[in-house]
Write a structure and sequence with these properties.
With 190 residues, the chain is mainly β. It contains two helices and ten strands, in the order H-E-E-H-E-E-E-E-E-E-E-E. The protein starts with a helix and ends in a 5-residue tail after the last strand.
């Protein structure tokens, strides 16, 4: 393989990898998290929406009993970054925004799988239950959702993945989804 082709392949591979936490990540003790949870106004046909979620990234198990992270404070609408996106989802007519909230929290160590309940985060909606997870490893930050929507049948979305700071992350199910963004907080939080 030519040196130029090797360099091109290496560049593509590096761009596809989630960015490692910056060297100063150890100094970051809090994270700003914002989440929009939305559902399809008309559920898609031909999909088994009640099929069990595969639990990507959780290795099939949530560890009970691990200490949960701490919510330091809720964000006002003026402090959130996804307000425009939530407004577009509401106006489009295809999606119904179930919940939109932002907060500042600590993270648990990877792989504790200790999440925060939706109600504690200001993400309350009828028939919506579950938790949001934020875990910090030595190199990566992981964001996860373990959500159930509805009662009979219940739809579930369960996924934990590496994320980059300040980038939108989309977790999807055929009937509902989550858009989230995580930013570091490097100063004391009141």
């Amino acid at each position: 393989m030519s040196p130029l082709r090797t360099l091109t392949c290496l560049t593509v591979l590096l761009l596809w990898q989630p960015a490692a936490l910056p060297a100063s990540a150890a100094a970051i003790s809090a994270y700003q998290v914002e989440v929009i949870i939305f559902r399809a106004v008309t559920p898609p046909a031909g999909e088994d929406l009640a099929a069990a979620a595969e639990g990507r990234g959780f290795d099939g198990v949530l560890a009970p009993g691990a200490p949960a992270p701490t919510v330091l404070r809720q964000l006002d609408a003026s402090q959130m970054q996804l307000g425009g996106l939530a407004a577009r989802l509401r106006a489009g007519g295809t999606w119904q925004v179930l919940a939109h909230a932002g907060w500042i929290q600590t993270a648990t160590d990877w792989p504790r799988h200790a999440g925060l309940e939706l109600a504690e985060l200001g993400l309350a909606a009828p028939d919506l239950h579950g938790s949001i997870f934020l875990e910090r490893g030595q190199q990566y930050l992981h964001l996860g959702v373990d959500l159930q929507l509805g009662n009979n049948p219940s739809w579930s979305l369960r996924e934990l993945r590496k994320v980059k700071f300040n980038e939108k992350n989309y977790f999807d199910h055929p009937g509902f989804g989550v858009i989230a963004i995580v930013s570091p907080v490097r100063r004391a939080v009141p």
